[in-house]
Each structure stands twice: as C-alpha cells, then as structure tokens.
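Anyone opening a protein record will find just a pair of labelled lines. A complete record is shown below as an example.
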Amino acid sequence: MLLDLVTKMPERYKEMQYMELVKRAAAVKERFGDRLFIPGHHYQKDEVIQFADVTGDSLQLAQMASSRQQAEYIVFCGVHFMAETADILAADHQKVVLPDLRAGCSMADMADINQTERGWEKLQQLFGDTILPVTYVNSTAAIKAFVGKKGGATVTSSNAKKMVQWAFEKKERLFFLPDQHLGRNTAYDLGIPLASMAVWDPIHEKLEFEGDLENVKVILWKGHCSVHMNFRADHIRKLRSEEPDVAVIVHPECTREVVALADDAGSTKYIIDTIKQAEKGSKWAIGTEMNLVNRLKDSFPELEIRSLNPTMCPCLTMNRIDLPHLTWILESLEKNEIYNQISVDKETSRYAKMALDKMLSL
C-alpha cells in the first residue's frame, strides 16, 4: 500500500545508537535478498554507502537499478531527480523509494518547467526554429520530458562534449539546461568562443548578451551547482603560491575561471579514475563534493589528497539521506509500508525517456 508521502520518520530512529541502526539495516537487507536493490551516489555519507549494492553517478545508478529485474524495491540513496530517473527507466513492477524526500538538488530546482516553457517561447521569438534544447541529467523529469518533446537529449558530465557536438549537427543553436557552467565549459572546450554564449535569466525572463544576436551559438540557463560554486580561482592561486607541486583537478560544474586555472577537469568518474591511476606520493587538491574527497583520501593513503576549498562542507541536500532514514525505510518496506515512493506519470516518463534514449543510443 502507498501511504502518505509526507509521513515523517519516527523519532525513535533518531535516538537509536549507530550500531543498532547498522544491525537492523543489515538484517532487513539480508532478508530481502535480491528483491531489494540499493544504489548509492558517490556523494553519500559512508554510513549510507556501506549498504549500497553499487556506487556511481546518477544515470549509471539508474541504469543499474533498471537492469536488476528481480529487485521489487529500489531504495535510491541520492537525490530526488536521480530517483525520478530510476523510476523512468524501471520496470512496472519495480518501486523506487527515496529515504528522505527532503533530499533534493538546488541545481535541478533552478529549472522550473513553467519558467522553461515561457523562456522557450521568448527564445523562439528571438531566434526562430534554430535552437535545440539539451539538459543535464541533473534536472527534473519534467525538464527531461520538455527536452524530449523538442527532439533534444540529455547529457552527462562524461559525454557532454559528444552530445553538444551532436546537437550542433541538428540545429544552429543550443539551449543548455540547467547548469550554465557545465554548458559553458563544454562549449568552450569545443572551440565556441565565450562571446558567442548568452545566458537566459529565468527570473527576469531576459537574455543576457551584449552584441549582435546573430552571433549567439549557445544559450545557457542561469543555473548552477551550489557545491561546485564554492571552489574559486583564488583557492587555486593561493595553493599555487604555497605548494606548486599540488595538482588541481575539478568538476566541470565549477566556473570557467576555475576550470581554466585547474590542471585537469572532468566528471566524477573521471576524477576517481585519475586518482586511481595517480603516481604514488603525488599531491592532489580536488574540487568536488566533500564526502567523495574524504572517501578518496581514505582509499588512497599513498597519495596526499585534500579539498581545493579548505573550508568545504558536504552537499547539504544529498546528506539528508542518513542511516536513520535508510533503516526506517527498509524496516517499513518489510512491513509492506511504502513511504516516499517516487513515481513519474506515464506521459512525463515517455517523453523524458525519449531524451535519455537519444543520448544512450549515441
């Protein structure tokens, strides 16, 4: 049965000792066996990751979940848009659950479907039928569906260059949602000058651009990742002046200035793979979420790893998923009480899947 989505976790789970929570969660997981699948995003806390069947990026986890056909329940340890993607790709018999509905993504929330539709109308008035929309997978199901309806596709930080190249084969201009920094860094790396990039401000419903509109090639939605905005150029300059032998690697959700100053930039998977292959004794400053940085630091003690921002904290919304919520959800499922189920309506799923499939087919 599907119970009230706003039901709160009982207080007793907050009061339980850590080891009791671990014991109870492990017991339920063992009893469920293959009927339960727990994907855990790289940015999750260690107390949650210890119960993950797989760890990875959002799309990778959603794909893995859909391939586990024997799993009746998918308890997604990530944020809301990730659970939506899992539900879009999941089979009809699979139920996707988010341990805490407050686990959202500020970037995804910066692209509201009503704002997007209004913005699209205005951009059509300015540029006509010359624009193809693409959206980062870090977006709501509604935005993915919007893009799918318009013939566009989703992108990941790993395949963004390939997808942007594909988009320019289809149309003269690109509308990139919702992270302006990934869009800007990707387009710049492909040789598109910054002077040919405009920014769409959804709040004031206006295009930020100086010059002849004919020169616009990329229209960037004015959104960003709150975590990656905390890495600044002055962090790199200070580090260079004090310890020039430290290599800096950052995520492309960082600003153009930060990416330009870093030694390297790439997706979460790229960062992890780079650290795995790093020379023993090398020093690294990493510009991405703190839970992952700390996990890499613990996993590779032969390297000297730190956060690029010395005062960095973990992603607050991602960290809504904690061990008490996970244990509560698991024990509730065992009692056939399904809380926090993420269910995307069929029409939205159909169009969103079109955008996802277009990317996957390439």
Observations:
- The mean pLDDT is 95.
- Residues 346-361 form the longest helix (16 residues).
